[in-house]
Give the backbone structure.
Amino acid sequence: MAAIGALFMLVLNAMFFIMLIHIIMSWLINFNVLNLHQQLVAQIWYGLNRLLEPVYRPVRNVLPNTNPLDLAPLVVFILVIWLRDFVVPQVFF
């Protein structure tokens, strides 16, 4: 049972850091610190978007439309932290 919990923790930790990179990168792009015309930045950005969009899409369908502000990453980020810090340790350890 602990092996399954460790696997869940590994997936949640990886997701946490991938989302953290995505959120920080979105800030840097919006404040023109990073430029999407640079090939490496664009590849990383579009790769992260393709990886995280299936996670964000169901949350966006549930949340109300706040057109300029996307709250889906925040909701999923808080959910990942809650699962990683509270749920998985209570269930598996």
